[in-house]
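Okay, any thoughts on this one?
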Amino acid sequence: MITKEQKAELIKQYGKNEHDSGSAEVQVAILTARIKELTEHMKSHKKDFHTRRGLLMLVGKRRRLLSYIKKNDIENYRNLIKSLGIRDNIQ
C-alpha cells in the first residue's frame, strides 16, 4: 500500500502545487506506484486472483488517463512516461 508520505511526494513532484491531487499526471504517477507494488505482490502470490483483477483494473485506468494526456498535450505525455519509466504503447 502506498503511504501518505509517498503520495504527498508524488503530488509535489507531478502536480501543479501541493494540493493538486486530481490532475491526470498526478493520478498516473500514483497509479504507477500502486501498480509497481501490486506487481511485486503478484510475483510471490501467483494464485491471488482478486488482486490480479484489481491490478488489471488499475492498469486499464492508467491507460485511459495516459491516452487522455497524449491526446491533449503530446510533449507533456512524453515527459511523463519518460520520468515514470512507462513504455509508449498507447494508440
